[in-house]
Design brief:
heterodimer, A: 222 residues, Rossmann fold, 6 helices, B: 76 residues, alpha+beta, Mth169, Chain: A, 3-stranded antiparallel β-sheet, ATP binding (chain A), nucleotide-binding (chain A), cytoplasm (chain A), glutaminase activity (chain A)
């Protein structure tokens, strides 16, 4: 499967995700600059990486969400192309309107940088088919603005539609209903604050993240 | 024309920064503070003939995230 990684000024997990995608797919991802107007034609996944795009000026992910390449990402996501946003990428996807709600400053105001326990809430999405529902996994988080907010009505709808993909199994940042990762209505867009791309090799301290990419690759090529 | 755009968190949206400021004021001995909400002020200089719809568009499309924030525009 061919993949693309979007690179904004200030992205800093673009190489991590590129290494992870290459390890799992065997193909080097295409790195796509934020100023480009189009995505490569034949990709099966677009990753929006972590970092501090545009210095996170105004709001985290706000300026990146209005960059030329994001118009193409929004358009292709609408046609069903899988899009994965991690950390700052999740913030970009909410700001771009691909996912509901917003990511606010962590409740305790601290930048949280550690491994956290997560529960996989659904295994029936393209992104989580490598896991069992209810399974406990461990991914690192590293963020200041991961406190997910949506109004109660939206939260109820998201829960009802099975769109919570990952939930924190411990207190991390004050996220509503402990939401750590969220799917769009069609299930082809996932945004998550934790970093699966940093759990690919045993040397990373575990391989829980690798199964996300393996499951995704199988689901996309099936 | 100068514009001041005030962006504030919607009522009901938790404001951890406002809460920290509230706490710090309390530590300084300012006990009478009931609540603190932090927002932003964005100053713009635009052409005099910029219409209200355009100004509103700038606020809605970029300056404020209307999921969590309200905005108010003052023309100077």
């Amino acid at each position: 499967m061919k993949t693309a990684v979007i690179v904004f000024p200030g992205s800093n997990c673009d190489r991590d995700i590129a290494v992870a995608l290459e390890a799992v797919t065997g193909v080097k991802p295409r790195m796509v600059w934020h100023g480009d107007a189009d995505l490569p034609a034949d990709v099966g996944l677009v990753a929006v990486p972590g970092g501090f795009s545009y210095g996170d000026y105004l709001r985290s992910g706000a300026i990146a969400a209005r960059s030329p390449i994001m118009r193409a990402v929004v358009e292709q996501a609408g046609k069903g192309l899988p899009v994965l946003g991690i950390c700052n990428g999740f913030q970009v996807l909410t700001e771009a309107g691909l996912l509901p709600g917003a990511l606010m400053r962590n409740e305790g105001l601290n930048f949280v940088c550690r491994d956290v326990a997560l529960t996989v809430e659904t295994s029936s999405s393209t992104f989580t088919s490598g896991y069992k529902a209810g399974e406990r996994v461990s991914f690192p988080v590293a963020h200041h603005d991961g406190n997910y907010f949506a109004d109660t009505e939206t939260l109820d709808r998201l829960e009802g539609e099975g769109r919570v993909a990952f939930r924190y199994a411990e207190s991390v940042n004050g996220s509503a209903r402990n939401i750590a990762g969220l799917l769009n209505d069609k299930g082809n867009v996932l945004g998550m604050m934790p970093h699966p791309e940093r759990r690919i090799e045993a040397a990373h301290g575990g391989t829980d993240g690798r199964r996300l990419f393996e499951g995704l690759m199988e689901a996309v090529s099936a | 024309m100068k514009l001041k755009v005030f962006v504030t968190l919607k009522p009901g949206v938790l404001d951890p920064q406002g809460r920290a400021i509230h706490h710090a004021l309390g530590s300084l001995g300012f006990d009478g503070v009931r609540d603190v909400r932090q927002g932003k002020l964005i100053e713009l200089e635009v052409a005099d003939d910029t219409d209200d719809a355009t100004i509103d568009g700038m606020c809605r499309k970029l300056l404020a995230n209307t999921v969590i924030e309200n905005y108010r525009v003052e023309k100077a």
